[in-house]
Amino acid sequence: MKLAILTSGGDSAGMNAVVRAVVKAGILKGCETWVVREGYEGLVRGNTEALAEQSLDEAPVDLSDISASTDRNSNNLIHNLRFGDGDLLKDGTGDHPGTRSLKGRYIVRVGFDDVRGWFAEGGTLIGTARSKTFRTQEGRLQAAYNMIKEGIDALVVCGGDGSLTGADVFRSEWPKLVEALHAEGRITAEKASLHAHLKIVGLVGSIDNDMSMTDLTIGAPTALHRICEAIDNINSTASSHSRAFVLEVMGRHCGWLALLAGVSGGADFIFLPERPPTSDSWENEMCECIHRHREVGKRKTIVIVAEGATDRDLKPIKAEYVKDVLTDRLGLDTRVTTLGHTQRGGRPCAYDRVLPTMQGIEAVDALLEATHNDPSYMIGIQENKIIRVPLMEAVAMTRAVSEAIEAKDFEKAMSYRDPEFKESFIGFLTTSTLEQKKLPSEQRIRVAIMHMGAPAGGMNAATRAAVRYCIRHGHTPIAVHNGFRGLLDDNIHELSWLGVDAWMSRGGSELGTNRTLPSVDLGAIASKFQQHQFQALLMIGGFEAFNSLVILEEGRKHYPAFHIPMVHLPATISNNVPMTEWSLGSDTSLNALVDACDAIKQSASASRNRVFVVETQGGKCGYIATVGALATGASLVYTPEQGMDLDTLRRDVRFLKTRYTLDAKGRSEGRLVIKNEAASGVYTADVMTKMLKEEGGSLFDARSASLGHTLQGGVPSPLDRARAVRLSLKCMAFIEREHAKLLQQPVKTRHAPPDSAAIITIQSSSLKWVPVQEMVAHADMENRRGKNPWWEGLKELAESLAGRPQLVGLH
Ligand code: ATP
């Protein structure tokens, strides 16, 4: 298959990662790959006739230096992979030695290395445009001609709903366009029959997260990072001067950025296009809400306005006007900050590297599997599952949101958004406002909240959300400091609404963590439960929290105090809690790893060819190393699950030698090897580094870097914060449900069922509660990790994208 990829509409972070993944996966699956510069405009312009014959096909790939150890078989593979200069498109001029000028060429054949290192770049390196010509049939006829001339009949489009609609129009019209080209004598009958159908697949590149039927669009997480960074910075000034800030963020028809920024940034009030304030006077509603916050002692006020926000009569709500209202009515010193294009750009966050990579690979599979009768697919994501959905259904639903807004049917608009959107909105109201919805007194609960194990990003955000939920519903949130050890020392206190206000953006653990298990003295722990009248327990932490829950549930046989709802919310950078695909903190640590590796890679290629052996934490769980390798484009990854042996190391050294031999002359390249700290007790990072240094000879040097505790991250990532709020509120709802069931039993003989001690998990496309005893069967208790983790196959994938299996003849 000859496939091409283009980026279209507004640029977004992660588009380069999509191009990289599609090109690499395409080549690995035997396709010829092309990029189209400047979106649909490039497709229409095509390649100038005189230059058309000069494809990259003939660009010399110098194989003369390949080390003698590389066998014939892998040499052929190298030819197929078309390793080339690797910088063909970076500056758009193609003026490097060994590359051809791109002038007059919009459809460019690319090789494996042409997209190397594209991960870390924001925007789109192949350019994007809004093409008027492509909107005309004439333009599309020319585009079809240009594609057929190159032999291409499979197209990946990464853009917004407009771009995907354009792709679908193009595909449905294709047979007619081919017929017309043949009738005009521009293509032969043979070509017409060879290219009778066009295959397309869409990927959504949009910072607004405005596409229906997918949880996230490419670029939206990075934009959210930019906004949260701004809010975190503004927070300190706002607090110092007791000021109010009104932030305008992007989102013409979709309030996702404003909503998630509101949730993750701990804002006081938000304005979204699809959910205007409900009262007749939003000014009163906002002022009452903020006045209440100020009355309880809040020193800062953050209001977020989506650029497309309106009132219920569709009258735009503008940041300047919001500022005037706050100044005039509440006398607040108020400033406006419009984030504008700063939200769009910058280095992609970890999620905008992993998601486009997985989706790009899925896009190639979808093209290879496509038949003429299938609808065109859009690649999306639901929780943690990459999905294919009929492209036009997703576009139609997206449009329906805008239409519902225009028709002032806001309920309908909200109903078309994915369930997470609605949950986030409720999460915002629950955690940001002082509004009370107290339950009848007998249903109110004393909830103990505890952090366990090592700190992880999002722990404090989860606690903040639980505390605010408790206060809203009339429960009593009790902090247990320093885990079970702290409980034994009566280190507990009641938490307040204001007391947790700033916890959203705080890293570490405000409650303090401890690894002591309740088995240290189960009887004493039970008596402390009784003494403090705990009626429910929320544990936020990693494998220790799971282990503790096992012990407490078993302890129910002997201690009535444990016959209460007990939940575990997984939070650990190791992501080693069984059965859940994500834990709080895993996104923060992935971002810390990506930041560190970007800097290391830069330094590694600054002077001469250098391999960096980067050691990660993670205990005996290879999650952070594996997904980190995928997110940073590391060449090799070593995990405790797979271990290390001499045969593999020998092949890996050969791979690195071959790889450096194939690099463009005169360029220095940095490469990463990511190794989990427990991958091997013998082949340590130090041994590996010395070995690579020795073997690299004149080809490459080696250094090591241990990321250690930096991976626990400073400030939690926005996704960890948002996920913390969502999951924490679900935990509280679970506790209420289970408590209500227990209320039906006589107090003295209350017997909590086993499934009232459970862990909230993310499994593929859904959230699931797993009773703790059921989880035990899925746990490798000795190595403190789950069995069969979802990311195990990603090691091979990451190394494939670096070319390892092909270069050592392993695939
Ligand atoms: P963003 O979300 O950033 O606005 P988008 O993909 O929705 O991205 P648009 O400007 O709507 O951006 O579309 C990008 C390009 O897609 C257009 O310039 C045009 O070339 C093509 N396109 C959009 N709609 C159509 C259509 N109905 N028919 C043909 N081409 C279209």
UniProtKB/TrEMBL annotation:
What is the protein name given in its UniProt record?
ATP-dependent 6-phosphofructokinase
Q: What is the lineage of its organism?
A: Eukaryota, Fungi, Dikarya, Basidiomycota, Agaricomycotina
Return the GO cellular component terms, semicolon-separated: 6-phosphofructokinase complex; mitochondrion
Q: Which residues bind Mg(2+)?
A: 161
Q: Where is the active site?
A: 208
Q: Where is this region: N-terminal catalytic PFK domain 1?
A: 1-433
GO MF entries: 6-phosphofructokinase activity; AMP binding; ATP binding; fructose-6-phosphate binding; identical protein binding; metal ion binding; monosaccharide binding
Cofactor(s) this protein cannot do without: Mg(2+)
Q: Which reaction does it catalyse?
A: beta-D-fructose 6-phosphate + ATP = beta-D-fructose 1,6-bisphosphate + ADP + H(+)
Any idea what job this protein has? Catalyzes the phosphorylation of D-fructose 6-phosphate to fructose 1,6-bisphosphate by ATP, the first committing step of glycolysis.
EC annotation from Swiss-Prot or TrEMBL: 2.7.1.11
**What pathway is it annotated to?**
Carbohydrate degradation; glycolysis; D-glyceraldehyde 3-phosphate and glycerone phosphate from D-glucose: step 3/4
The Phosphofructokinase domain, residue ranges: 2-57, 106-367, 446-735
Q: Name one GO biological process term.
A: fructose 1,6-bisphosphate metabolic process
- Pfam families named in the record: PFK (PF00365)
